[in-house]
Amino acid sequence: MTISYPLIKPKYYKSLLIDLVSFIKSPKNKTIVEKSTTNKIYDTIGLFFIKVVFSITVASLLQFIYDPENLTSISMTKRFSPLLLLLVGGIILPLFEEITFRLSLKFNPIYFALTSGTFTYYILTKPVFKSRLSLVDETFWYRVIPAIILLMIIFLFSSTKPIKMMLQNFWQKHFKMIYYFSCISFAWLHIFNFELNLTNLLWLPILTLPQLFIATIAGYTRVAFGFQYPLLVHMSTNILFLSLTFLPLD
Hints:
Blueprint: H1 10-25, H2 37-65, H3 71-79, H4 82-101, H5 109-128, H6 140-158, H7 161-173, H8 175-188, H9 198-202, H10 204-207, H11 209-224, H12 228-244
Helix pairs in contact: 1-2, 2-11, 4-5, 4-12, 5-6, 8-11, 11-12
């Protein structure tokens, strides 16, 4: 029996990039059913390796050109113990972000409601109150309560038959716009990880380029394979990099 190891073959990564670029150029709201779970796992891991290489390359180049301080990572390491940091940064926040930016790429009333609620919390937290997603401060309930109320209202309305059908048709006709919006909003909202000054705003497209690339891959795997694939990759990546911060490097 011949055993295939696609992850060690350069041609395999070329094929993955071709599929990814093809999807980005013309996004289709279609699940790939002909691939087995094993092949989907291989593809997800392969795309993860591509993402890591790209992100490290861009981050390394930026260090020589412009490297502003990431305020979010500093804030979290100060506020949480190592175990809590892994729980919040490695599990809770990835789940929150995947629900916010990827879950509703496939339309479903509960998906749409959850995304609307979490996106509202995100906007109220970062641009409006200039707080942190994981920070329970004096603005916390002002951020949470409107998000929960909106979530419930949207679920009730989008579950009614006429509105549900209207939204389903909108998703089919305008999926390209929805996919691009999810990618760009995910990337550009990460500018709030840095100090909001004129220089950082001018550098926004470059500073958030790794997040934009991550979003295109995560959106593709969410639509083509299922929500669990980008979610598990997001969690694994965060846990890995957070764990590395605990190593004694002195």
